[in-house]
Every structure is written in C-alpha cells, then in structure tokens.
Amino acid sequence: MTRHDDAMSLRHMLDHATEAVEMAQGRRRDDLDSDRQLNLCLVRLRNRLIHAYDKVDFNILWDVVQLDLPPLIEQLKTALGFDGENQI
After folding, report:
1. pLDDT of 37-86, one tens digit each?
2. pLDDT per residue over 7-18, tens digit each?
C-alpha cells in the first residue's frame, strides 16, 4: 500500500467516525432501540458489523460511538496533519 493509499484510508476512517459521532450527538442509548434511522445508520458500520449485523450488541455499539470514536477521531486528525479543523 502506498503512502497516498494509507492517507486515503485514514481519511475515510476519520470521515465515517465523525459522521457516527455526529449522528449520535444529543441522542440517548435508548434511541438505538426506538429510532430505526439511527439504528440503521450506526449498525451498518463495516467489517464485523457488516457481516454479523443481526448480532450487534447495541450497548457495545453505543459505547464505541460515545467513548471510543471521539479519541480515535483526534488521533486520526493528528496522523493526517490536521491543525484544528484544517489540514496542514
């Protein structure tokens, strides 16, 4: 994989992680059970989820979106050379 491919992959990860966090902003864990649109948006994440989405533990998914993605977003921004909201 080239350096460009790596950067592109990291950028995709950043974009999708940011979207997931934004979709969950202002929401509660219970919304995953009652809001079909939110459920579909968050459950349809790639890899494990895409191949076993019928077995997704919503509590774990919610914790990932709330607790794991925000620090990952910051790490991805650092890796991609973002300064605040702008890429340097």
Report:
1. 999 888 877 655 667 667 788 999 999 999 999 999 999 999 999 876 66
2. 999 999 999 999
User: How many folded domains does the chain comprise?
Assistant: 1
CB 76 within 8 A of CB 10: yes
pTM: 0.80
Work out whether the CA dihedral 35, 40, 43, 49 comes out positive or negative.
Answer: positive
Bridge partners, 72 (sequence order): none
Q: Cα 38–43–49 angle (5° rounding)?
A: 175
Residue 88, domain member (yes or no):
no
Give the Cα separation of 3 and 84 in Å (integer): 23
**What distance in Å separates the CA atoms of residue 26 and residue 22, rounded to the nearest whole number?**
9
